[in-house]
């Protein structure tokens, strides 16, 4: 296996929220959004984070790029010079230097691009902000990247409103690529797109990865996309990673009941397939008042008394396959048939 | 499986040559361009397509909900099941906000929308909004209306309905809101439920719950459903018949099994291939459809998929309007590849 590029150790994030009924000067209560997240991200791989809305996947992505400060924990980044630095502790110039290596692509291409900047300005802004380059150099690099992202170079003077959703997402990709990043965090990067366009963008992301050896952290709620893009998958539930495994192993044999239920809920485009599915009762619990013990136990079909009392640790049960479930070894869960 | 004595009966609703034109600054947009379909009693028709293909406009025109800018022509023939022998009603000929359409809208044909947050008014309680429809169409009595509303809420799986009744939409989660929306739509026992992307805003696990709910309620009430979606997975699970739309036209129409087993139109095939599905892996490259959907402004009479089509025939596909070809009794496709020899050889 290749070396770890990012080593996330015990990441926690708390938000302070005022309850609705609180008095004016009441102290805000704390909501634990991420609890003790630890994983490694290997160089050149795509690690996907999946989960339902409110599970903390977006918060995790933002904490990793220092978009919002984490409460405690470390994000150890291995630079190209093999130095190991804690990205979250860096300040000033050093942080800025590392920021070049880590870029982000957002979900909604309609709000992530400024309507007042031309496409050329949008793509070149990171370059101008970080380097002193002559105008012709900037122009050359922008054109080069735009072409790689599948944009027509003659349209660069236009403004984002003139582009369709898929084209806009290409602009966002070009903007992320221009810094030659080593890691790109894609937060639901293809969720807002139509199916036929989605396939184009997924293929583009894969091609770029091959070409530039980029590492992706791919945040998504859609398991069928995740399976088509990632090397490893981490399943999140209520601020915790409940299962982390190589994609094939995860889909062939999920070990956490939540993963099984998620897979079974994906509608299959085949009218003759077996439509019997596991339907979870209820909804994701409120993270402000998480259930006791295993957070998943109120919705779990296999729960026992132990699950209500004891919170399971994330532990490795097979090579690279970690699960947070007391009964991971005993349960025989249903995966997805491979073609 | 249900038996099919209904097949010979008249369809509940038939749409003929529906056209919706919108005057834009830079020309006329043929948003919906000659759409024909029928909805059978107790069955589900799926309308699939990408954004901008006209599927929402089509579904909204069934209850005259389109904005004034839309110039609508054609006919939408609705045959209420209780009007034996009667010819039925042409919905398009009704006054857009007249009494006649208002007695159908929400009563006999009702609709659930994609975004339940914007579909509910934030100023009134959920109970109040569900009761409104009941009091207009079913009973004037407030107490009785509340009883019906509470029943509906519990039917769609909302527990603690007494408390929920007095809550506002923002106190509900997305899935709950969609359930409340369904209970509102079904509160007057409609014959046809139009569901416009009913689960797009929801998580997969909640989506599975809502789809399951719709299916069981359909069995209970025996209503027909027009399901508008972009997700072929949902279509495969829910529908009896499918119509694939592209740029204002239905390009292929067939029973669901036939369509998935034997897709004919290059667009349908492309859609099916480009859909990431469980069972694939990272090594597998998704096939995509090149280009993007063009604007339907001042379209010349030719195949609208021509630019993106892999199997296009120059001089044929871009020369004239494409006729509808029957592949089998209930499978039709709008493509020159399958038209009769005289159409394929010399245009």
TrEMBL record, chain A:
Pfam family membership, one: oligo_HPY
Gene Ontology molecular function: any one: ATP binding
Keyword Nucleus among UniProt keywords: no
CDD domains in the record: ABC_NikE_OppD_transporters
UniProtKB keywords: ATP-binding, Nucleotide-binding, Transport
A GO BP entry: peptide transport
Gene3D superfamilies in the record: P-loop containing nucleotide triphosphate hydrolases
InterPro entries: AAA+_ATPase, ABC_transp_ATP-bind, ABC_transporter-like_ATP-bd, ABC_transporter-like_CS, Oligopep_ABC_C, P-loop_NTPase
Record domain ABC transporter: where: 17-263
ATP-binding recorded as keyword: yes
Family named by the database record: Belongs to the ABC transporter superfamily.
Protein's UniProt name: ATP-binding cassette domain-containing protein
Record organism: Paenibacillus mellifer
């Amino acid at each position: 296996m290749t070396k770890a590029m990012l080593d996330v150790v015990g990441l926690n994030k708390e938000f302070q929220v005022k309850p609705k009924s609180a008095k004016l000067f009441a102290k805000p209560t704390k909501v634990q959004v991420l609890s003790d997240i630890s994983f490694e991200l290997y160089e050149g791989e795509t690690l996907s984070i999946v989960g339902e809305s409110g599970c903390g996947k977006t918060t995790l992505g933002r904490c990793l790029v220092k978009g919002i400060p984490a409460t405690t924990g470390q994000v150890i980044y291995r630079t190209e010079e093999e130095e190991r630095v804690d990205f979250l502790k860096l300040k000033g110039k050093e942080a800025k230097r590392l920021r070049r290596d880590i870029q982000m692509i957002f979900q909604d291409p309609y709000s992530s691009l400024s309507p007042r900047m031309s496409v050329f300005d949008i793509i070149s802004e990171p370059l101008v902000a970080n380097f002193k380059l002559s105008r012709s150099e900037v122009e050359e690099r922008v054109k080069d990247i735009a072409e790689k992202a599948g944009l027509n170079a003659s349209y660069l003077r236009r403004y984002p409103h003139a582009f369709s959703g898929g084209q806009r997402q290409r602009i966002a990709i070009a903007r992320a690529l221009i810094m030659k990043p080593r890691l790109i965090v894609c937060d639901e990067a293809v969720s807002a797109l139509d199916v036929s366009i989605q396939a184009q963008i997924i293929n583009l992301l894969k091609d770029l990865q091959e070409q530039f050896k980029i590492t992706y952290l791919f945040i998504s709620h859609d398991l069928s996309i995740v399976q088509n893009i990632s090397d490893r998958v981490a399943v999140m539930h209520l601020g915790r990673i409940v299962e982390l495994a190589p994609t094939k192993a995860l889909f062939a044999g999920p070990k956490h009941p939540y993963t099984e239920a998620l897979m079974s809920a994906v509608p299959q485009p085949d009218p003759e397939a077996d439509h019997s599915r596991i339907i979870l009762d209820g909804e994701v619990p409120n993270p402000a008042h998480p259930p006791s013990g295993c957070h998943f136990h109120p919705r779990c079909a296999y729960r026992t008394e132990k699950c209500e009392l004891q919170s399971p640790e994330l532990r490795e049960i097979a090579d690279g396959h970690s699960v947070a479930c007391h009964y991971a070894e005993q349960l025989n869960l249903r995966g997805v048939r491979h073609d | 499986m249900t038996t099919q004595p209904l097949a010979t009966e008249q369809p509940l609703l038939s749409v003929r040559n529906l056209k919706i034109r919108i005057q834009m600054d830079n020309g006329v947009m043929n948003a919906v361009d000659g759409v024909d379909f029928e909805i059978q009693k107790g069955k589900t028709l799926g309308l699939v397509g990408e954004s901008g293909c006209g599927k929402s406009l089509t579904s909204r025109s069934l209850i005259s909900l389109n904005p004034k800018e839309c110039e609508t022509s054609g006919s939408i023939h609705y045959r209420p099941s209780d009007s034996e022998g009667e010819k039925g009603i042409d919905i398009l000929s009704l006054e857009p906000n007249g009494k006649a359409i208002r007695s159908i809208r929400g009563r006999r044909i009702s609709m659930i929308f994609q975004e339940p947050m914007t579909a509910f008014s934030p100023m009134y309680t959920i109970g109040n909004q569900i009761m409104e429809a009941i009091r207009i169409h079913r009973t004037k009595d407030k107490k009785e209306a509340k009883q019906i509303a509470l029943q509906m809420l519990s039917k769609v799986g909302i527990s603690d309905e007494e408390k929920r009744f007095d809550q506002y939409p923002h106190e509900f989660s997305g899935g709950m809101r969609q359930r409340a929306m369904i209970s509102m739509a079904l509160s007057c026992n409609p014959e046809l439920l139009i569901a416009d992307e009913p689960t797009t805003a929801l998580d997969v696990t909640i989506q599975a719950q809502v789809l399951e709910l719709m299916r069981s309620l359909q069995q209970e009430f025996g209503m027909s459903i027009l399901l508008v979606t972009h997700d072929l997975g949902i279509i495969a699970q829910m529908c009896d018949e499918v119509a694939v739309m592209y740029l204002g036209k239905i390009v292929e129409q067939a029973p669901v099994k036939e369509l998935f087993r034997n897709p004919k139109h290059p667009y349908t095939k492309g859609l099916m291939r480009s859909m990431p599905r469980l069972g694939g892996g990272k090594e597998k490259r998704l096939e995509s459809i090149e280009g993007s959907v063009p604007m339907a402004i001042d379209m010349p009479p030719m195949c609208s998929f021509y630019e993106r089509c892999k199997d296009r025939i120059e001089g044929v596909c871009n020369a004239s309007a494409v006729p509808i070809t029957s592949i089998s009794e209930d499978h039709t496709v709008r493509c020159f590849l399958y038209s009769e020899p005289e159409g394929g050889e010399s245009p």
